[in-house]
Give the backbone structure.
Amino acid sequence: MKIGNKTIGGENPCFIIAELSANHNGDLNVAIETIRAAKKTGADAIKLQTYTPDTLTIDCDNKHFKIAEGTLWDGKTLYELYGEAYTPWEWHKKLFEVAEEEGLICFSSPFDKTAVDFLEELNVPAYKIASFEIQDIPLIEYAASKGKPIIISTGIAEEEDIKLAVDTCRNVGNNDIILLKCTSSYPAPLELANLNTIPDLKKRFNVEVGFSDHTYGALAPTIATTLGAKVIEKHFIMDKSIGGPDADFSLDVNEFTDLVNKVRDTEKLLGKISYQISEKVNKNRKFARSLFVIENVKQGEIITENNVRSIRPGYGLHPKYFNDILGKKFVKNVDRGEPLALDMIENLSKNL
């Protein structure tokens, strides 16, 4: 599948998404400069979130709507948090234009049908379903029906939730599905990452897989890459000093650049399944072992372990023939230090 000009999966490079989220602090210029900064890190894409407080919840301060779960946002109501964090819809067109200028793919997470309709007008190349929306089957169905790749985070999902979401996409004819292993804790402890789930997601649901990360640093995304993640998503902030709801677990320019570099280096290290050696390595085969004459010998002398040995370098006969040549005669005088060759040995098959 393709998102913008990037092909996802197979031997293609990991698709790295910088999540803008709330890291604009309500300032359009900060949002614009954050997108420009994301380009400098080497990210492939910038992702927005398309909602308003009223499309996510209601303005209510009873116990059901107050955050008290040991999070960074405890004490706020949901409406207050989303009012602080949301990206104004009137910014979207400008932000998409800036991303295009920078050569970044831009798309978003819709949180209701009106957001999908709005994003369709901007011709987004993909949709991301946030972890807490994986149970919103009508939203998934509507977004998937647009025929664009669907990226789904699994942060709060059990297996049956994931299956229902995947089946919903397929039931409307959309098979371009990417599941992201995710831990919906902010920040997420390392011991809850369970990255071994990544290859299992791919096998169990027959989809492309990735990792939406809320841990500190670049370690978890790097390991996720070794486990087959083809998409990495991480919250990105231009400068942590500006603060904001997501600043604590977001990566700044230097940190995100380090993440990108580590993922790309990991991809180089993983390479592909191959038993061929490179030209550079092949040149070093001369330092491998081979059979050499280690004493001056005369024509007619018998080859023994005392006058022929397997040693470095690799210019002589292959050591696998050592037992075949023992007891044979030299047909010429050979000086110590000469590589053993077929024409030195009596009655030795040329087919060795």
